[in-house]
Structure prediction request, 304 residues.
Amino acid sequence: MTKEYSIGQMSRRTGVKVTTIRYYESRGLIPSPGRTQGGQRRYDEAALERLAFLRHARELGFNLDDIAELMALAETPSEDCAPAYEIARKQLAAVDRRMTILAQLREELARMANADDPGHAGKCRVIEVLGDHRLCIGSHDLSDSRADLSGS
Amino acid sequence: MTKEYSIGQMSRRTGVKVTTIRYYESRGLIPSPGRTQGGQRRYDEAALERLAFLRHARELGFNLDDIAELMALAETPSEDCAPAYEIARKQLAAVDRRMTILAQLREELARMANADDPGHAGKCRVIEVLGDHRLCIGSHDLSDSRADLSGS
DNA sequence: CTTGAACCTACAGCCGCTGTAGATTGTATC
DNA sequence: GATACAATCTACAGCGGCTGTAGGTTCAAG
Ligand SMILES: [Zn+2]
Ligand SMILES: [Zn+2]
Ligand SMILES: [Zn+2]
Ligand SMILES: [Zn+2]
Prediction:
């Protein structure tokens, strides 16, 4: 008789919120676990490991589709791990792209926010720069990069 | 008689998609423009400038709430531009946070993806690392940072 | 006057969750 | 066994910032 975990215990052990665990199940990322007679989920050790894997992959920025593929690869250990490497490299490339963009933004923002506004003779530097891209140094043409820059 | 622009011309001139312009209007970020007898939107020069401002601010990663505030400040030029600077600095701090996190991720991913898998004696490095955070160097505890890391 | 591109509204869907409401179940204590 | 109360259940709406669809109307060129 192996150990069984309630969904709350799974949550505490992996750091994934209860609602999120149910969400993952509904998305098919983790298999539906067994249930008690009353209908509550009961997980085993294997389920715990899968969830930890999923959590870790999310922390590293993989999206749920890629994670599904990685988990499938993990379950079916093949001789060929090329697909897994490809996903990882794709993720690395995405992170690199976003870092490049963010670095440019940072520079612009720093120039904007740290300019010692000289008595703001009629104009505020921040507002001014936002109103006229020619006051920027670089270009932030994120049309193709699909960068998600939502802040705080 | 000033120039008038259709929504499509606004789109071409600012690079903001037609649907997005309508979305901004529905969110109250830009005022409802005049209409033709047939009901089509007609914008003036001022509207064009507001939209360009909005676009530029989005490119720099500001969220729509902050942009609304910045635009209000821009319309009502006060002696005190401190609020605008505060928003810009907040944005800068957010960008810095995200850069830090991404740099850590990048390192981990690079280690994972560039490891020359030595014949993968039973295990794939990528899968292995994802399954065990202890194989990581740093920590990626993004619990509070609200980092959005969606890739590609 | 006809064509066809551009425009209109309204609403659903994307990602990855998060939060709500209202009902039910599990467990510790008496 | 009864009682209390936390934990769990389902179903669904909402977040940000759009994007896409369907089905209709209007504008401007030829
Ligand atoms: Zn000023
Ligand atoms: Zn700029
Ligand atoms: Zn391998
Ligand atoms: Zn790790």
Remarks:
- Residues 4-59 of chain B form a domain with the Multidrug-efflux Transporter Regulator; Chain: A; Domain 2 fold (CATH 1.10.1660.10).
- The two ends of chain B are 47 Å apart (CA to CA).
